[in-house]
Design a protein that fits this description.
Elements (H helix, E strand, L loop, with lengths): L9 H20 L3 H31 L5 H34 L2 H31 L1
Helix pairs in contact: 2-3, 3-4
């Protein structure tokens, strides 16, 4: 047997070990179907969120001199709410994907559920509860 440091037979063993280590790492980092689906859905919901959240500004810039305030305000409200819904989906998707890849499925479920619940409460349910209370 040759000296592994001088190009002897030992390098073949090291090469095989390195190849198997590379294959193991590659397999570990390959996306699952679940991860690909979450990734793509998150990407799309982020794009849709951006469209909805930026649209009111564009509409205002284009229509504000036309004295179309009522239309601007009404549509801006609806677009902002829709944008927040898609932003919540996007944030939830990011938390789910990263937690699933880095930690376990259980951790991913808990983290995703907690973040989703916080957004649901602070962004939607608390304001609706306040509105219901004000109507009484």
């Amino acid at each position: 047997m040759g000296d592994p440091d001088k190009g002897g037979a030992g390098n073949e063993v090291q090469g095989d070990t390195a190849d198997s280590e590379h294959a193991r790492r590659r397999k570990e980092t390959e996306d699952t179907g679940f991860e690909k689906t979450v990734y793509y859905a998150t990407l799309l919901s982020t794009a849709v969120s951006s469209v909805f959240l930026i649209a009111p500004t564009a509409r205002h810039r284009i229509r504000f001199r036309e004295l179309d305030k009522r239309w601007i305000v009404e549509t801006a409200n609806r677009l902002a709410i829709a944008g927040l819904v898609f932003l919540a989906i996007s944030i939830t998707g990011v938390i789910l994907l990263i937690s699933h890849v880095v930690y376990s499925s259980a951790t991913a479920a808990v983290a995703t559920g907690a973040v989703f619940a916080a957004m649901l409460w602070f962004w939607f349910l608390a304001p609706l509860a306040r509105e219901a209370r004000d109507d009484d």
